[in-house]
Design goal:
The chain is of the alpha+beta class and about 90 residues long. It has a 5-stranded mixed beta sheet. A hairpin with a 4-residue loop joins strand 4 and strand 5.
Length: about 90
Amino acid sequence: MRRFSLVWSSCFKRTAKLFLRQHPDLRDVLSDVLHKLECDPHDPALRLHALRGKLEGKQAVSLTYSYRLVVTVETTESEIILHDIGSHDKVYK
């Protein structure tokens, strides 16, 4: 089975650090989601979906009901670029 490489953008590094400081209880959830992304970004539990508008070309993954990750899945490169993490309203603004 092919594994994907996670590429942490500088923006994601900053927002993830802040997000985990504000939500330490979601550390294990984020770790589980990142592991699932590496193994199979199309795992139904991730609820991967394409975005439109100014985020067209990117996808979102559900962390919880309220929080999302914005990613770009590069299947030809076997990479997943992590762009942003946060509440639904924050990452889609």
